[in-house]
């Protein structure tokens, strides 16, 4: 039967192409997503300045966080700030057999006019010539400053004058080692050590240290590469999983429609003695041939598409440009396995009913389709509806803020699968409801379109399902994103009690802070430091894998937190204010242990319990305490509140005058809001790109399915024309069917998306309808209508070009 399957494919060009396109696109998308996941897992970032080192010793950028109270299970979590090492560790590394060179590296920002540069100690320059002295500096030749001149550099928020002892071809600035040690903000510490050794395996330095070799050396130089990989892995996993589910839908609907159109052929084979097993083997063989061919072509194009997606993520700022794209044989193996599994299972399901037909009923079955609601369909539909409802309840009862999208998103697919299982019945019911309007608008052709849709509900449902998927996925994901972005912007605006912001790229000096506080029209000024921290003792059940956002400040009036107990005025030294949702001791005066962003453990005394917006809880710490444990090591922003009666323009003018001559800039509250919005926009852009990719695949399947379904009706159209219909009436009937299919798909897709959107909106914004322009929904439904009409009318126009008698004689 496998040989017969190969021979029959060449006589069914339309069905073959349709199934091939569905399987090919599915394999390409899954392969690309798997390639992105491999890239995220590797997080390969070849070193630049450390290319000379055979190994790099750096602080361990993750730790084991307890998962449950009273249980030994832990999970590895990434630290958000650079973990620095004691400079004295160099002696221990030098004592290791095989080590010939050890160089400690520090990185810190400096500004030369409007040029933002990165500075290091001379030890890591590895350039010829004597080291610069305390008042000297080595600048890049590209800076435009010549050797022997004097320059003013902004370092740590101050302007200092240095003599340019020489220039180099490097793009970095170099200070004397002891000067760089002080200017780095972490005296006695280094970012990492570059090591030249002939035996990297001998570098056994104890816990808390990582020895990096090969491409991993770049992770010390570019710690953002590891964070990029951490973002890419779940993103690729979600997109890949969603792509597989959509691919199963698309491939299954295409193959089942193809098999359904061959009912007469398969019935004849059954009537002449073909066994059910042989029939299933033939259908399965045909499908596997298509699947193998599709995955073979996709093996070449999958990495190309994956590279394109990766380039889009990089150019959009979601992935660090130093990360290298990797796609080996494993992603293609995953794509091939997923595609062949989808093709094979779809073929088995499609051939199962045909194989069960008894020979005496074969031709009758082919002529008169029977019931579509099987026990399996009903069970799957009930399970999916139950799962979607359960996720909606969890979203409403458990989730808070933007994280509610984590349960709202999967609900879309559950509702979609459930609706797809009963789509023939829903299609017939909806067609009955549309019967009056259709006949009123289009007369006899509308009546015929309704009749055809009702009588061929199973066939029509194959076209309705992908439209429902496209509309449901696009509407849900886009409006979930727009609502999340709007809620985040609203929360940020309400929580930010500041009228202006003073920012210093190299830091805010004590002198600058003093000037800001005493500027005319200033009621309050507070340093503004952000990071993340983990509550390690006592255990906090509400803590996520990313810990808590941590906010450092000195004046509580710049924050919207409401004090429940205690006093934020006591937030100095080793103290903390906890949100009232934290599952730890809520008594003022008790202590909690925090693992700060750079891996340092600090035991802090609770001075206040505060109430904050649900889903936006933060730990409040003294600004100087938190700043010392960030990568920057110092305060870079100051929030300013205006005195009563002082408008925005006057405050900005006053701050600009007060900070004249200092390396800082003054902006209004929109500056911070814009930075927050930019971060949200990056995530939104990535979401839109992935949704667009999946919806695009679904849209192609819509066209694929409708073209295949319409082009096989040449004999039907011929009989209608012999019965008195004109070609124009047949085309209007096809347009009516396409419009009806689009209307049903849009209606079902809207219901599917509402199952996810409504619970999320109630949690995130307290409203039923999502935030975002209605034009988005209008574009989605307009696109669905246009595609359905074109995919129905164009094949009908081609099919009716043949003379009616010839069409009837040649059949399908």
TrEMBL record:
GO cellular component terms attached to this protein's record? plasma membrane
Q: Which organism is it from?
A: Amycolatopsis echigonensis
Membrane topology, as annotated: Multi-pass membrane protein
Q: Which family does it belong to?
A: Belongs to the ABC-4 integral membrane protein family.
One Pfam short name: FtsX
Per the record, the domain of life is Bacteria
Among its keywords, does the record have Magnesium?
no
Key words, A-Z: Cell membrane, Membrane, Transmembrane, Transmembrane helix
In which compartments does the protein localize? Cell membrane
Q: Per its record, what are the GO molecular function terms?
A: transmembrane transporter activity
ABC3 transporter permease C-terminal domain spans which residues? 238-357, 690-802
Enumerate the transmembrane spans: 16-37, 232-257, 287-310, 330-355, 376-400, 412-434, 460-480, 685-709, 730-756, 776-798
According to UniProt, the name of this protein is: ABC transport system permease protein
